[in-house]
Amino acid sequence: MRIEKADLADVLVFVPEPFHDDRGFFTRTLDAEIFDAAVAPSVTAASFIQDSQSRSVQGTIRGMHGRGGRGEAKLVRCANGAVLDVLVDIRPNSATFGKQQAFRLDDTDFRHLYVPPGFLHGFQALTPTADVCYRIDRPHDPAEDIGVAYNDPDLAIEWPLAVTVISPRDASAGSWKDLAARL
Q1: 159-174: b or e for each residue (b if 16 or more CB lie within 10 Å)?
Q2: Is residue 20 among the annotated active site residues?
Q3: Mean pLDDT of the chain, nearest integer
Q4: CB of 35 within 8 A of CB of 44?
Q5: Could you tell me if residue 168 is left (phi over 0), alpha (psi between -120 and 50 degrees) or otherwise beta?
Q6: Who has the most CB within 10 Å: 57, 80, 125, 141?
Q7: Are the C-beta atoms of 115 and 71 separated by less than 8 Å?
Q8: What pLDDT, in 10s, does the model give residues 72-98?
Q9: Which residues of 60-77 are buried (b: 16+ CB within 10 A; e: fewer)?
């Protein structure tokens, strides 16, 4: 498994090396030793306490979501289909505060993202269906949910497809200006 650094501070891209044969493929989706060597001590592989999966239809956007308080570390991958995954750094003291970066995650090269605490996260399904798997390092607390509208003009995220589905919560999320002022 290779590790690539993203343009955003502290974000890592884990690139598995799948083994393909006439049966299909086999790939490792987490190697604690490699993860811990790259990320620890702030978060270790053992820190992940919840594993979730979502399925979205093409054009769906989920995001942009974040967590208040001490934030939330995530390990995100696309197990089926493809998504455009977008991160925005919301750590006021970070060199990349307010910057965004997009990543294609899919079931072909199996890249997955380590997202440290302090980021907004969202994605758009690029294929007829897309399954996204998330590992997080603490229980979800709805009282700590924060968000910015997927179409906020100040973020100006370039979603590749027309939006087909968006939740009412995501459609009515706040603005980047308001969130940045509170941070």
Answers
A1: beeeeeebeeebeebe
A2: no
A3: 95
A4: yes
A5: alpha
A6: 125
A7: no
A8: 999 999 999 999 999 999 999 999 999
A9: bbbbbbbbeeebbbbbbb
Structure tokens at 91: 């750590």
Which tokens is 64 given? 């942009």
Q: How confident is the model at residue 178 (pLDDT cuts 50, 70, 90)?
A: very high
| pLDDT more than 90, % of the chain | 91
In angstroms, rounded to a whole number, what is the distance separating the alpha carbons of residues 163 and 63?
12
Catalytic residue among 20, 65, 112, 150: 65
In tens, the pLDDT along 37-65 reads 999 888 999 999 999 999 999 999 999 99
Q: Could you tell me the two tokens for 156?
A: 């100006």
Does residue 65 have an active-site annotation? yes
Ordered by where they begin, the domains of the chain are 2-182 (2.60.120.10)
Q: What's the predicted TM-score (pTM) here?
A: 0.94
